[in-house]
Task: inverse folding
């Protein structure tokens, strides 16, 4: 069997562990049952190197190669909940990484467009996504530019620590649309999770949702 065929095995043990993770997230304050159902549906172990399968369902971030990480399940749940996704919405994700967050959004019925800047990671993830039943379109590029060809989007989610709120992304958000983005704190220590809603006059209303630590959002693309 090729490694990916092995990886998409989703057995009773995986399903049981996933249910425990969902219960943990629910008791930890995630209340949106649609988000929890999506997390229950997506086999997280598939996105980790096979040596991590046993612990794929602990609430931890993990290395996925190319110096990047798959976000902690709680962080994925929080960002997804804040995004208020509805079936059929067009969602742009910056930072495909492992592809896990993108699949959780797709499992909620979103049409997901996801950009990754690291070439090797982009191809590795694309292959995994092609073996799964979730509809996610992936793009190799610099997320600071968004995806003008596919704009406007109902929702935008940034899954890397952003130095600022990229103008191009705001322009590509529909009126009434929501962007969830962890923005770097001025002291250089981690990020504050922001939810920005684009109002009728094109301005953004801003809400804050606590402190996080993401890998940095970087300009340009590279070969890692
Ligand atoms: N959503 C991912 C989290 C990955 S970590 C998951 O579910 O696994 C953040 C990712 O953002 C990394 O893969 C990193 O390479 C990518 N990234 C950083 N800056 C970026 C940019 N400007 N454009 C696109 N991707 C970027």
Result:
């Amino acid at each position: 069997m090729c490694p990916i065929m092995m990886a998409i095995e989703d057995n009773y043990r995986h399903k049981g562990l996933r249910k425990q993770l969902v219960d943990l997230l629910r008791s930890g304050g995630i209340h949106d049952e649609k988000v929890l159902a999506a997390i229950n549906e997506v086999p997280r172990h598939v996105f980790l190197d096979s040596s991590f399968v046993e612990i794929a369902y602990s609430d931890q971030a993990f290395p996925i190669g190319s110096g990047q990480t798959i976000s902690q399940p709680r962080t994925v749940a929080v960002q997804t909940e804040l995004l208020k996704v509805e079936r059929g919405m067009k969602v742009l994700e910056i930072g495909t990484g492992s592809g896990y967050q993108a699949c959780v959004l797709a499992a909620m019925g979103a049409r997901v467009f996801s950009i990754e800047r690291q070439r090797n990671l982009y191809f590795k993830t694309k292959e995994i996504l092609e073996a799964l039943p979730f509809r996610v379109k992936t793009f190799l590029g610099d997320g600071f530019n968004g995806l003008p060809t596919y704009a406007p989007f109902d929702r935008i989610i940034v899954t890397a620590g952003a130095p600022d709120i990229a103008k191009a992304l705001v322009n590509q958000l529909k009126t009434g649309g929501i962007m969830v983005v962890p923005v770097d704190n001025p002291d250089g220590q981690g990020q504050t999770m922001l939810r920005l809603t684009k109002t009728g006059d094109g301005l953004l209303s801003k809400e804050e949702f606590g402190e996080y630590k993401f890998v940095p959002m970087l300009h340009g693309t590279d070969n890692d």
User: Anything to note?
Assistant: The first strand starts at residue 62 and ends at 65. Residues 1-7 have pLDDT under 50 and may be disordered.
